[in-house]
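Person: At home tonight, work slowly through the protein below, taking as long as you need, and write a paragraph about the fold.
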Amino acid sequence: MEKGLVLFQPFARGRQVQKNKGGNCVIYTRVSTKEQSDNNQSLEIQRKACEQFAMKSGYPILGYFGGTYESAKTDERKQFNNMLTFIKKSRDKISYIIVYSVDRFSRSGGNAIYIAEKLRKEGIALFAVTQPTDASTASGSLQQNIQFIFSEYDNQLRREKCMAGVREKLSKGIWCSSPPLGYDIVRSEGRKQFVVNAKGRLIAKAFMWKAQGMAIIDIRNRLAAQGINICHQRVSDILRNPFYCGLIAHNALNGEIVEGIQERAVSRELFLQVNGILAQNKQGYHIKPENDDAPLKRFIKCENCGSYLRAYKAYKNQQYYYKCNTVGCNCNKRADVLHEKFRSILGNFTVTLNADMKYLIARQMKATYLQLSKEQQDTMASLEAQLKDVEKKLERLEERFIEEEIDKAMYAKYSEKYKAERTEILAQLQQSQTGVSNLDKCIDKAIDYAAKLTPLWEHSDYAGKQVLQNLVFPDGIYYNRKNEGCRTPKVNGVFRYISTLAGITGHEKSGSFNQDDDTAALVGAIGVEPMTLCL
């Protein structure tokens, strides 16, 4: 800087202030099933790799979490939530969560993106040892989001295969999970049977008591006196379960009732009689937290105070409204109006593509992802080199043993060491390759998903709408009562990127919607085949 300008330094703008961020970390490991936890060394391999990275990077390890089997298709996991609680309450600043790979952290797609974004705002970065990315940058955040979506896609493929088998079993009348209270599983001649036990015979009496007019609370007390201690709500659920009269009802059967192979605890006539009585005893009010008429509940926020809007149904016109509970805020709006505004916002990221445009966008996304994955490819190349080196050592060790240069004890010692190294390297290679094994299919799925965001939201149930909303807009949306406007502070980089590419290829975006541009600028800045998009 010139000496004459030093006096004007206080007036400079745009200086980047580096936050003081500690290097403490926690390590999270997991497998999906108890069999994996008991029978393979995956947890040990994950922990060792994470520890080596932390030591190499100079990050003190303040805690270990996981170390067991927990499904990651949802984020309601005991060890996972224990880790988040520990991070929040820790007196020492924690800057990193280190995992073996992104899918070890979560396979919940949109919710994982939301959690990672919340952690980022608190100065906590998620780092996957086998999929290294700098999520503090726009390109790194995009890459991590793609990896989250790929993990969810892989989970959905597995679930589809699993559910096909479950559906087949159920259609034959075979219950596929633990039976309801009152049944034992007995295996005879290779066949599974569901047999009524002593508790089942007591439950059969409960049906008789209800048919005679006994109240649910009295049935509950009588069952408790005979050793079945359950709440009165559970009693109601049992009396409404057709499993006890020899039938099967399951979500996988798409609304059908199937004849089951289980032993009947009660007759079907008695079951229908009891449920006829229960249907006549409706009273009080029913709380429905998952309301299809108010899908933006727990998602849309008040611009003025930042609180989530709650939903209610007006008595006079029987219409649903969203309202802020903050005293004096007066943020209140009809649900159908806000739904229309949300459709309009979602429409900005719902792309219309022909075959040529889809091909170009898929090609560009693949090129972008591969460039962002260059570090991962370098890691794989390094692992392959290490594998070749270990193979050579094993081969040379065998030669020396055959030529009697070393004895059997030394051969066994080093052979075991080299084979353990080879196993670990192969495991790391396999994990590193998982992220791109179905790259083309995953990109096609993401593009197809982006092409039907609006109709998919409109035709989904409450849970489906919530998942899609949080997937596309991880931070929700804000409604401003004064100017009747909606603001989206954060948009999923994948869908914003597809929308931007669609605008470049089709020249169809008007630019009327105000997006945050951390990833929109990515197209011009990243330098990946820029000329392939314009014909």
In short: The CA atoms of residues 317 and 334 lie 11 Å apart. Residues 300-338 form a domain with the N-terminal domain of TfIIb fold (CATH 2.20.25). The chain has 19 helices and 14 strands. The longest strand covers residues 61-69.
